[in-house]
């Protein structure tokens, strides 16, 4: 089987403090040899840089996540621009909008999102986008901004929304949620979508697949996501693995 790419895993999270090396090794044993590690706030950037420098196959992305809005300050955007110059990542992320969580100021979210999209254009980097409860506005913002490429991670929208993203050249990040039988809409989209827009992800330690419900998620479980998607599409696992890995390598310029 082609080596898999986990296009979204928070390996710096405290949930992995006790066994991070073992988690990475289990992922490699499961065929997940390449992982993209997105940041959530400015404080996390150095730890992610150092983590990715210590382990082959780990690639950093730096950004300001909307759910961590209380951690951000206006000067962090300027700091991000300098950080992108000095510590070349594979993407700007995780960025976006979250209208699901109460108490997060939407205007502030929009400000940080737009500024980071501008930085991605300036630095010619793809974006890793969070769009929970805000997919319509995120898609409209990406369309208006123009000149961008990237992935909407943990996609959970409609087929029409998926097509709007494909028309913009954006990928869909698909992980554990697709393995639940109740996720019928998502499973239909994944079964029929153009494979050139599909990326596999874990979003570990969050969003475990059905076989690991209630447990801490790990990047090794991307192999379970692969098996589910291949079955939904009626295609060999090796073919889906090769295509999705090629998609990630092309988007993030991993080669």
UniProtKB/TrEMBL annotation:
Top EC class, one word: hydrolase
Single GO molecular function: hydrolase activity
Keywords: Hydrolase
Alphabetized InterPro entries for the sequence: DNase_TatD-rel_CS, Metal_Hydrolase, TatD-like
PROSITE patterns linked to this entry: TATD_1 (PS01137), TATD_2 (PS01090)
Known EC number: 3.1.21.-
Superkingdom classification of source: Bacteria
Family named by the database record: Belongs to the metallo-dependent hydrolases superfamily. TatD-type hydrolase family.
Protein name as it appears in the record: TatD DNase family protein
Source organism (scientific name): Rhodanobacter soli
